[in-house]
Amino acid sequence: MNDPGKLLRLFRELNLLSGSKRGYSVQELADKVGVSYRTVYRDLRIFEDTGFELVQNPSSKRFRLSRAEDISENISFNREEAGALEEALVGLTDGPLRQLLMDKVQALTGSAQQAGLLHRQTVSANFQQLAQAIRDKKQVMLLDYQSGNSHQISNRLVEPFAFSDQLSTVQCYEPGSSSNKFFKIERIGQVKAEQIPWQYEMRHEEKKQDVFGMTLREPITVRFVLGLLSSNLLREEFPAAAVHLTKLPDGRHRFDGQVGGFDAVGRFVLGLIDDIELEGPATFVDFLQQKVKPLG
Fold first, then answer.
1. Which of 18, 23, 107, 208 could be cross-linked to 64 through a Cys-Cys bond (beta carbons 3.0 to 4.6 Å apart)?
2. What is the mean pLDDT of residues 287-296?
């Protein structure tokens, strides 16, 4: 697994499940770890696929680990053990390895919740900095931006000029690439205000996104029917999608809306394919089939 954040989250969830006789519901785990219901639902599937036996109480719907006592002994630390480990790590040379080990210890002892709080505070501060830059018509530097396309972390000098309807992304003109782009606020490490006025205002071009965050250049209409779980998760993760949902006589919902491409909506559908029935277009069905072929 090449995503340290995901690894730490899985450690944290595993520690919670193994340390509780009562167990946790999916929503309770999501609240504890600070992620969405859907993310925890996927993580539980990962645990099952990797050999952990999950037991669900039929009345409370809470999950717990079978033989949790044995597992908990092996993966968790008491206060004294955690303190000794943290003291030992303090003596290491400061760097990525030391920080990663510290994060793992904190994830297994419960203090990772503080990291989640700090992250939310950082996102809020970055949003305020961007809003101020838009009002003042100033350039900013997006420090340590994690690109979802190139999977690289870099600093990006931009001119922010508008937020998306859901306020999850900011539209900017990037002089370095001479193009207008959407940047996810969650992926910005820090916003650094520059005392430089906009230089390219005439090139700012506000664009629309679909409900999944894709730019609507050449809109494509997609249709699929969702069960109770997938329809609830769609509204939770993408609230703007609600206007495209129609309730069917059998209690399910049909999504009928325009998207800017198949990548984002495809990730949602593939993650819940057992609870979704595809209706079209044929190009969307073909796209998803190509995605699952390597797994077959």
1. 23
2. 74
